[in-house]
């Protein structure tokens, strides 16, 4: 079984925040692949089912931790322990300050780069989970980061955000099958990032 985690904060007031793009991505996966219904489990909202892939059906558990973003690791640990899911079969979709808006990169392991949700997952589970990094850009000043991630996705960016989330959902069978390079390539092809400015790191 694959454990697919989306990072975000629970509650309507956070639902359209940049910080909640992981939740938005999981909602699209659940809708597109008929996973669910959502149920309260593992200190989160969970939906499960099977996805047909080029290599056959794969069982998937979607998890939106309801612990608040910075404590996401507690929910991930509970789900991973229950189903005995190893770190290499966990994928975390999250907002990424160090990528330009609309950029997407799938990465295995690495540092948390100040992302407290990833820090929590590394501490409770493992730093070696795979991350689906969804670029939201950086406000340019560390003092402005909290306000930036907790602000709603602006109207001008709703197009790329919707296109990227849809591309991830449409390409999901490749990820579920373990074809990570093909998944990355298809997502980028379906939703090329808009023109970007400013530094970014992979």
Description of the molecule:
The chain is an alpha/beta fold. The protein has a single domain (2-190), classed as 3-Layer(aba) Sandwich (Rossmann fold), CATH 3.40.50. It is 34% helix and 23% strand. It has six helices and seven strands. Strands 2-3-4-1-5-7-6 form a seven-stranded mixed β-sheet, with helices on both faces. Strand 3 and strand 4 (56-65) form a beta hairpin. Helix 1 (21-32) crosses helix 5 (158-176), helix 2 runs parallel beside helix 3 and helix 5 runs antiparallel to helix 6 (180-190). It is globular, with a radius of gyration of 15 Å.
How many distinct beta strands? Answer: 7
What's the SSE pattern?
EHEEEHEEHEHHH
CATH topology: Rossmann fold
> How much helicity do the residues have?
25-40%
CATH architecture: 3-Layer(aba) Sandwich
Q: What's the shape? A: globular
Query: Biggest sheet, in brief?
Result: 7 strands, mixed
**Relative strand content:** 15-25%
The CATH top-level class label? Alpha Beta
In short, what is this structure?
This protein is an alpha/beta fold.
Quickly list its features:
202 residues, 7-stranded mixed β-sheet, Rossmann fold
Topology diagram in text:
Elements: E1 2-6, H1 21-32, E2 39-41, E3 44-53, E4 56-65, H2 72-83, E5 90-96, E6 104-108, H3 116-124, E7 130-135, H4 145-149, H5 158-176, H6 180-190
Parallel strand pairs: 1-4, 1-5, 5-7
Antiparallel strand pairs: 2-3, 3-4, 6-7
Helix pairs in contact: 1-5, 2-3, 5-6
């Amino acid at each position: 079984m694959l454990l697919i985690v989306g990072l975000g904060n629970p509650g309507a007031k956070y639902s359209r925040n940049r910080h909640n793009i992981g939740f938005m991505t999981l909602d699209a996966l659940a809708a597109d692949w008929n996973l669910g219904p959502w149920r309260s489990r593992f200190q989160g909202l969970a939906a499960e089912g099977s996805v047909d892939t080029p290599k056959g059906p794969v069982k998937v558990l979607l998890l939106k931790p309801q612990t608040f973003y910075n404590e996401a690791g507690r929910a991930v640990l509970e789900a991973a322990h229950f189903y005995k899911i190893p770190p290499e079969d966990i994928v975390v979709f999250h907002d990424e300050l160090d990528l330009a808006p609309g950029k997407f990169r799938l990465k295995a392991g690495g540092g948390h780069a100040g992302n407290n949700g990833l820090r929590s997952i590394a501490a409770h589970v493992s730093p070696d989970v795979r991350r689906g990094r969804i670029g939201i850009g950086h406000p340019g000043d560390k003092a402005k980061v909290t306000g930036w991630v907790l602000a709603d996705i602006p109207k001008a960016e709703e197009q790329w955000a919707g296109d990227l989330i849809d591309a991830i959902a449409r390409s999901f069978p490749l990820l579920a099958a373990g074809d990570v390079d093909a998944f990355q390539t298809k997502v980028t092809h379906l939703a090329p990032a808009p023109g970007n400015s400013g530094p970014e790191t992979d």
